[in-house]
Amino acid sequence: MQDAHIKEFLDPKEPKHEEKKDQAERARNAAIKTFAVLGLAGILALVSWGVVKFAPQGIKSLTSATFSLTSKFIPNKNKLTITSDKQKVSSGVMFILSWTNRNEEKGTYSLTYPCADDFHLEAVEIQSNKKLTIPCSTDFAFASDENKITLIPLLNINQNVNVPITLNFTTDGSEKVTSSSSVTMAFTKVSPPLQPAIATSTSNALALSPILTDTPPPVLAPSPTPTLVVAPSPTPRPTPVARQPVYTYVPQPAPPREDPFGRPDLSIRILATGTVNSRNQFIEQSAIDSNERAAVRFEVQNIGTKGSGIWRFESELPTQRSYTFRSDLEPTLFPGDKIEFTLAFDEFENTSNLRFTIQVDPSDQIDELDENNNDAGVGIRVN
Predict the structure, then answer these.
(1) How crowded is residue 296: how many other Cβ atoms within 10 Å of its Cβ?
(2) Among 33, 189, 312, 361, fewest CB within 10 Å belongs to which?
(3) In what order do the strands lie in the sheet with 161-171?
């Protein structure tokens, strides 16, 4: 009986013992997991350190390259600008073309205009009043110390015509036009006003004819002495004078210097290779280090005879991830104008020689004089 009571007394303690045992087991498992996580983290940290230490290019391939583009517009130093003292001129009326020329070299000027029905121009020498016909669609060469020329339009049809007149300047010794500028003129044929008829007075005296009759002629009384009355002379009317119509001219901005019948020609040229610093300044170098930002300076110039219109360029950059840089739409370049660009990039290929290529007007949207000067390339040496 006593043993039974002892057993009954001990049984309730068994569950408490098991609970402690479970708690100890869970603590041990948690400690193992913690050490496992810490060990894995240490291994990953060690691997990362090794990659950074021994494979920096591998790390670079996980990032994105950065690019920058700067540009500087350089206008044509040979800029020629032509203006007219009138924008609308009647046939037979003189007008003056004047111009400014930035080019200080010696040279000759020539004038040209397209042919139009029953229309031609004459050049006037003011001092001698000598006139010389300028044939259409030909280069009329002349000398001018005052940068102006007086012209007369002659139009034989009663309608208006718009004619572009182009002034070309060619430096001495050059076979190619150095610069040009155009202005479009409106010419009109004005019919002379009708001359009003001049009234003429006729005599009021009537011529009397004798009348034959059978009645004997009456006895005439002596006629009284006539009194002479002098009528006042009529006031002479002035002879009308034909006058040229008077126009009010609104000055217009000078048109761009281009040949309206020409074509543009965008040419691209590599200027230098190097790097850009933290202030985005270009530093010309023949070779660069792998941790620097590579940069290429190049220029696009219109060597044609007409404005280019808007355009763009593309460049295949030698970055680790293949990338095509496409520029925004660039402004019109008139003949002789150019823009210098600096294109910088990093994360380039892991090689000792990079190949940089660029193309202007890649979609071939501009009708150019020469389509074979739109590509350029250069090698960049990496230390």
Answers:
(1) 24
(2) 33
(3) 88-90, 179-188, 161-171, 107-112, 140-142
